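Take the subject:
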Amino acid sequence: MYLLGFMVILLAILWLFQICYLNTFYKLIKTSETEVIRSKVIDLLKSNEDDNSILQQINILAGQNNIAIFVADKDGNEKYNAEYVMNSSLKEMTKDEFHTFYQTAKDKGGSAKINYRGNKNTTVGDVANLWRKTHPGENTINTESNIPLPPMPGAAPQDLHGFERMESVIYVNIIEDQHGKTYVILINSILTPIDATVETLKIQLISISVIMIILSLFIAFWMSKKISKSIIRVNATAKELAKGNFRINFDGRDYREISELSTTLNFATSELGKTERLRRELIANISHDLRTPLTMIIAYSEVMRDIPDENTSENIQVVIDESKRLTNLVNDMLDISKLQAGVMSLTLSEFNFTESVESVLTRYNKLKEQDGYSIHFQYDDEVFISADEYKIYQVIYNLINNAINYTGEDKTVYVTQIKKEDVVRLEIKDSGQGIEKKDIPYVWDRYYKVDKTHKRAVTGTGLGLSIVKNILELHHAAYGVESEMAKGSTFWFEMKFEIEKDLDNK
């Protein structure tokens, strides 16, 4: 429809200029050209050139523009004459005819423009003669309207055809040269009737309009089918995506924009597929972590209810421990939801960062005694930072817990505090199997597992690294992980410190 509308507008403009206003434009252009020639003739007469040079240039102007130029003194005596218009006959004018044009220009301030209509046999003298016959006693011609002339006596029928449509214009100017001599300039230009041209153009434009409209419809139909082919294919593939089929491939390569859209949709499909897989794994893992403590609580509670001798402090402690584990899991889920929703705020304070690390390690004393884990903490100086103490404590706890959970058979974890310029860097290194490079960007996702075998954390919930990521981003802190296969992994983060306390005077 757009292409068809454009074609209709284009054809309408062609019709407007080539048919409706062609005659008007032609007259305006022809009149403008004649006025320019008149100015050039006046300049020639006022110049110092000799008569032969002036006559030669007047002949060139008249020949090139198909007009008649007649220059005489105020009595009608010829000075220069160049006639390239059939039957113009400016030279053959009588004194009375010349005087009529001269008087008309004089009464108009030295310049007059006379329009008239007639057939191709009409001469300039006929214009003056008709005016003097129809307006006796008047020496000037009314130049406000065209002068219609009757058919000339003895004219052939073909000469009379269309005489009412033939238009001519006569420019009359009275000037004085550099010697004070008066000259009268008459320029006659025929405005050739173009009705036949208009009719020819009209027939051509009718044919062109029909052909262009049919052609534009065909091109529009072909273009729309070609363009929409890829869009239809992409749309059909998108419907499959909406049904949950993430193994599809968007294939639209016909146009750059469609190709870019297909690439974007393929990327979106890949990401949606990963999200869906993670969602299923998340549900499965959370279900596992919820089911285990609930099963333990129910089992020990039933034992203590049915067997009086089993109501011991050890069994009650198991119930309490599993309840705490369940509480921690729920709290972690709530924390990460708040962090990702952006509704959790920071409570900033200045605290001893090194002491926070040591207090976390204290929680693992029992683990070290019972299971033989070894945690080494190295640092040079104690460091104070300004941050949310509780949340930074969570970060340290989760990173150490993750290292203990995935360390190697030597059960060794290295914690190192490093001061660099205005930041303190904490590194937690395990001796586990390591992480492949392609998996490193995803270790911060909730329940993302490199080995795809869910291993319940020793004292954690499986959401630790995701909580770490969100808390550190909330603090605008740098973080990352470095890992080599079979050499373990090192998780790190950096915090800015601004104050160093004098620990002896603390």
